[in-house]
Amino acid sequence: MVENGVEGAFTGPTELHSFAGVLFDMDGTIVDSTEAISKHWHKIGKELGVDPSVILLTSHGRRSIEILALYDQSKANWDYVSYIEGLIPKEYGGDAVEIPGARSLLAALDHAHAPWAIVTSGTRALLTGWLDVMGLSHPDNLVVAEDVSIGKPAPDCYRLGIERLGLTVEKARAEVLVIEDSPAGVLAGKAAGCQVIGLATTHQIEQLRASGADWIVQDLRSVIFVGLGVDGTIQLEISNALQT
After folding, report:
1. Is this prediction's pTM over 0.85?
2. Which residues are catalytic, by number?
């Protein structure tokens, strides 16, 4: 069977794994806001006098401040970026959809007080805006664009996420799970020393594989929270991973 041009099928057996913590990307992992982001960059592109299609070619998984710096340095500041990103859920909230399985997985982790966080290339205004509009669980810990000096694929954001879960990077990073949809995000998670699930929601399977994803699944319906172990670790079932 060929999936997105790659030999294989999403038929992997159910496996039980333990993790010290789970770090989620946001866009394409929890929420698919592709249409909303497209409309946003079309609006900003017109203001900048830049072809929006050119911006969209490289915008996914990257921080807006880095994209804006390519076209107008005067707008590459956090006040402006937070303002424009904070408008996206308000103006285009109806264009976003949940990634299948996201709501139930986040709710289960939150209810169990499990160690989880969201690590995103978006600003705090964008992240909290989407969680509020979609009515999704808010984690106790966040890492947002403003928190790091270098965005994905650099590992800084995920290293900070590990620290914010109260884990020692050197000891626990190999026991931390990152869930991502973009090649840049997978590379960041692997560079931070984590295990990574790649979701085939926004990119080609071969891109996720080439980036080093440990598992590739279609969406979060393949990741089920079983409970907390006696040592406080998160017990997850991973099923229907890509088999080649």
Report:
1. yes
2. 25, 27
